[in-house]
Design goal:
The protein has seven helices and four strands. It is of the alpha+beta class. α1 links the parallel β1 and β2. A four-stranded mixed sheet has the order 2-1-3-4. The protein has two domains: 79 residues, 3-Layer(aba) Sandwich (Glutaredoxin); 110 residues, Up-down Bundle (Glutathione S-transferase Yfyf (Class Pi), Chain A, domain 2). This is Glutathione S-transferase.
Length: 219
C-alpha cells in the first residue's frame, strides 16, 4: 500500500496514524507540497484530478479522500475501528467523518493562512473554527457524562482519527485550545493509544500528568 504523503499535512497524518493503529505497513512516497507544488504535477494529477493529497494506492485501487482511506484501512485490517456496527453507532461515526471536513476547511484553512500565507479571510476562518470546536467540546462533555471518552463510542473509532489532527493543530491557525478541557482530555486519550505515531506539532504522551481542569482521577 503506497501513500503519497506530505509530512506537515494533517490529512496525510491521519492516514499514517490510522495505518499505525491498525498495524498496516505503508510505503511512503513523499510529495513536495510546499514550496514545490508537486501535488499539481502531471504524475499526481493523473492519480487525483482534484490535485490534492493524500492519495492511497493499493493495487488497482486509488483513494483520494482521507475519510475513505480511514474506512478502507480499518475494514481491511482492524474492523473494530469502524465501531460496533449498530445503526446508531454507525450513524455517529459517519456524522463525525462528515464533521471532519468542516475542520479541514476552517481550522485547516486558518493554519494554511498563518503558516503558508495562503489567501483567505482569517477572521472568518477562525470564527468558523471556534464554532466547530465548541460543537465538538459540547459533544465530548455529553459523552463524558455517559462515561465515554471518544466521539462515537466508548472506544476509539475512525471518527476520532478523522477529527483529531486538525483539532490538535488548531493553535497553528491562531486558535488556542485552553478553553476546551474536554477536547484536551480527548486528545490525551488518543495520544496515549498503543502504536500512536507523531507528526510535527503533535507528540506522544511521555508522561501522563493531570490536566489543569481535569476532575480528580482523570488524566
Amino acid at each position: 500500500m503506497k501513500l503519497y504523503d506530505y509530512v506537515l499535512s494533517p490529512s496525510c497524518y491521519k492516514v499514517r496514524l490510522m495505518a499505525a493503529l491498525a498495524g498496516v505497513k505503508l510505503e511512503i512516497r513523499p510529495v513536495d507540497f510546499h514550496p514545490g507544488a508537486e501535488h499539481r504535477s502531471l504524475e499526481l494529477m493523473a492519480l487525483n484530478p482534484a490535485g490534492s493529497i493524500p492519495i492511497l494506492e493499493d493495487g488497482d485501487l486509488i483513494l483520494t479522500e482521507s475519510a475513505a482511506m480511514l474506512t478502507y484501512l480499518a475494514a481491511k485490517s482492524a474492523p473494530k475501528w469502524l465501531g460496533s456496527g449498530t445503526p446508531v453507532e454507525t450513524a455517529r461515526v459517519q456524522q463525525w467523518l462528515s464533521f471532519s471536513h468542516r475542520l479541514t476547511a476552517n481550522l485547516g484553512g486558518a493554519r494554511l493562512h498563518e503558516m503558508l500565507l495562503r489567501p483567505g479571510d482569517i477572521a472568518s476562518l477562525q470564527a468558523q473554527g471556534i464554532a466547530a470546536l465548541r460543537e465538538l467540546e459540547a459533544n465530548l462533555v455529553e459523552q463524558g457524562l455517559r462515561g465515554f471518552q471518544f466521539l462515537a463510542s466508548n472506544r476509539p473509532t475512525i471518527a476520532d482519527i478523522a477529527c483529531f489532527p486538525y483539532v490538535a493543530l488548531a493553535p497553528d491557525g491562531g486558535i488556542p485550545l485552553d478553553s476546551y478541557p474536554a477536547i484536551r482530555l480527548w486528545s490525551r486519550a488518543i495520544r496515549s493509544l498503543d502504536n500512536f505515531v507523531e507528526m510535527p506539532g503533535i507528540h506522544r504522551l511521555h508522561e501522563l500528568k493531570p490536566e489543569p481542569y481535569a476532575e480528580p482521577g482523570e488524566v
